[in-house]
Amino acid sequence: QTHFLFLSLQAKMSRPVRARRLEGIDKNIWVEFVKLAATYSKVNLGQGFPDFPPPDFLKEAFVKTVSGKNHMLHQYTRAFGHPPLVKILAQFFGKLLGRDLDPMTNVMVTVGAYQALFYCFQAFVDEGDEVIIIEPFFDCYESMVKMAGGTPVFVPLRLKAPKDGKLMSSADWQLDPAELASKFSNRTKAIVLNSPNNPLGKVFSRGELELIADLCVKHDVLCISDEVYEWLVYDGKEHVRIASLQGMWDRTVTIGSAGKTFSVTGWKVGWTVGPDRLLQHLRTVHQNSVYHCATVAQEAVAQGFQRELELYGKPESYFVQLPKELQQKRDCLVQSLDAVGMKPIVPEGTYFLVADISQFKSDVPDVPDSDEPYDSRFAKWMVKNKGLAAIPLSTFSCGAHKDNYNNFIRFCFAKEEATLKAANDILQKWKREKTSP
Ligand code: PMP
After folding, report:
1. Quick one: 168 and 218 in the same domain?
2. Which atom of ligand 1 is nearest to the CA of 117?
3. Hey, whose CA ends up nearest to atom 8 of ligand 1?
4. How far apart are CA 245 and CA 211, in angstroms?
5. Where does the UniProt annotation place the signal sequence (predicted)?
6. Ligand 1, atom nearest to 257 Cα
7. pLDDT tens per residue across span 158-217
8. Which domain holds residue 217?
9. 15 lies in a domain?
10. Buried b (16+ CB within 10 A) or exposed e, 203-218
């Protein structure tokens, strides 16, 4: 009888549990590489987060909010965004976009930019819709489009050779206008834009954005514009908001992140800015899923923005100071990599830097016919043998294009001076070992 019971239980458990929408997206490189870094790394320049403290004014705002007299700040607030936060975001982004924004309908707060992205795909993409993704891309775009039932269509940034003797720059990675245009059709529902771009650090120029905008208008396509690194732009480059270009406001959702803006990635406060005709559908997803984001963190971020609005463009502004500090850190890592021959691609923005590992191939020989891209094996070998963690660039491409990116790895330079120095020491020692017999 026991045997019979066992068989009938087993039969019941043979029913597939996984929903079809999860097919092909179960593996996640971050889970694997975060674990490898935790186990082996002495210096972790892998996952993108600062190891320096957030600004005092923001920490103080949080502490005051938690310990202050207004105990209602420990309770639910307005579902689509804590009123002080949506009000200040509407004021701040209204100023940047040059239009009046209604805090209640043109702004919505989310659990980090991740959730804002997820909402966009859930709200706009139907089965069979195509979504154009510019490659290399923040990897979750592909799986989120698939989860929504859509089909990602990839268009690569192509590396143009830099002038002799010059370091490569993220600006050398460019879209081919004809190739981009060929991806738009009546099946295209949206394009995902990420400027400044993770992983390359490319800051799209006004001309490049106008090209994208013209195609969106021509084909009636939405733009999901992930601008989480909007303040991290170097060398006097300009961050152009695509929503500010002709014909784009009505078809663009702009996504931001307090995590990147104020160096508090763990707070998970993000937002969307856009026309009510688009945001109303994000509100539908929100009210039927998460409904509400942490009040205390929203209140503290609101106070941070209040300060930044008052200091806008002034030297004391965090949005002025942070990129200055990060530019120095970028230059420091560029120098370390250049000195050992791991050729850096100098980023114009973000806190990431991609480097060419070709000259290090003798240390980690290629395995012909391996399923795993070379850069992935290289990054694993590097963290295990040298204690230095980085992320393989092929992570940021679709399966069919992994080979186009497998000579590169991505470093995060939003790190304390001591961390960058420790990385430099590892690279120098490695170089010495390579050259001495
Ligand atoms: N977009 C990009 C391009 C990112 O790099 C990240 C974080 N790595 C996010 C969105 C997610 O931001 P958040 O931490 O606010 O969810």
Report:
1. yes
2. 10
3. 48
4. 11
5. none
6. 15
7. 998 777 778 999 999 999 999 999 999 999 999 999 999 999 999 999 999 999 999 999
8. 56-311
9. no
10. bbbeebbbbbbbbbbe
